Amino acid sequence: xxxxxxxxxxxxxxxQAHLDPAARxxxxxxxxxxxxxxxxxxxxxxLTTFVRLSSSEDNQSNFYYNMNQTGQQxxxxxxPGMSPEQAEPPANLSTEPVVHEEVVVEEEAPEQ
Amino acid sequence: MTxxxxxxxxxxxxxxxxxxxxxxxIMMLVVFTAVAGLIAATGVTGQTMHPMMAAIAVLAVALGxxxxxxxxxxxxxxxxxxMTRTSxxxxxxxxxxxxxxxxMGMIMSGVSVLLMWLASNWLAAGLLAFxxxxxxxxxxxWLKRSTPQNIVIGGGAGAFPPVIxxxxxxxxxxxxxxxxFAITFFWTPPHFWALSLLAHSEYEKAxxxxxxxxHGAKATRLQMLLYTIVLAAISxxxxxxxxxxxxxxxxxxxxxxxxxYYAVRVxxxxxxDAGAPGAxxxxxxxxxxxxxxxxxxxxxxLIVEHAAGLHFPVxxx
Lengths: 112, 317
What we know:
The complex is a heterodimer of chains A (112) and B (317).
Chain A: H1 21-73, H2 84-87
Chain B: H1 15-21, H2 24-45, H3 51-75, H4 77-82, H5 98-119, H6 122-143, H7 150-159, H8 161-170, H9 175-198, H10 200-206, H11 211-214, H12 216-234, H13 237-241, H14 246-268, H15 278-307
Helix pairs in contact in B: 2-3, 2-8, 2-15, 3-5, 3-6, 3-8, 5-6, 6-7, 6-8, 7-9, 8-9, 9-12, 9-15, 12-14, 14-15
């Protein structure tokens, strides 16, 4: 142990730089502005991410919506040489959706 | 016993000093021309940008301009100290240390380019990065101290904002965007030389080879007139491409006549000569101030036409 109370190889931390009150106040002001600037940057990055994500969701839903709409409203292109009459479904086939009626099986009453 | 010499009181930078470092007056003009490019692109192509993204893109242009200003002040602090006009800037006055100025400039450059990329596309971000490099390195570090054509070539840096605004909306830079570039490019020499005619002794003292220092005031006045004639022709090009309509044509036509009137009067005067009469010096100052109004009104006419639905094209191909 040396005179200054340090073990061999140990070093004392350098003393903190002394700042006068004006310098300290200026440093605090700068730190505050830096903090606000960083906060602003994080906010802007968050905002752009949010706007991009939400607009891409819109695009995606629009895409599917439009695809479904297209499927319902526009008939597919006919092969060459086929007239629209030929493309019509046969008269004995209905274009109405088939509704399966529920078959109710009445249970016979057990013989007594 | 003698009194100790009084040491000057140390100044600590205020928020205002840091704002000055960003050259706010140049920033305003840069932002305005970028907004004009953005609105004109929307009007011409019909492509739109999310309003929030457009606002962030404009903010990115403002930050980029400020970053370039801080880098310029960092590098030029030695000559700023010599010239009276610039000796009160934050670095020569001791309010902001040089290291802080360059750190601020570099960080803001990165932030502005990143924000532009996030808000729009890589082309606009790349153009913004290049314009910062153009002003901070090509103009400030190389051209300014080496050639009397410094502000002619360096003017390209200030001409990029409308192209950046256009690219942010459309993702490309067609001829119309480069016409807006050319207007600002050819506007810069008569604008800046009008100021340097008044301050050429300061530039001489600092060793900056401005045209009035190297070639004299008479040659500068002639160059100002020639560039104003070229500007007048270029500024009417939007009528041919359909970018500008009737309102733009009338406003720019009148402004061109006024700008040419100033240029001819300055050319015939002795502004910038040793012992020039006060009226001649005042004329150069008037031309400098008018040039700011000129650029503002030319771009304002474009904004009004495309933003208010008053765009009635004269021609177009």
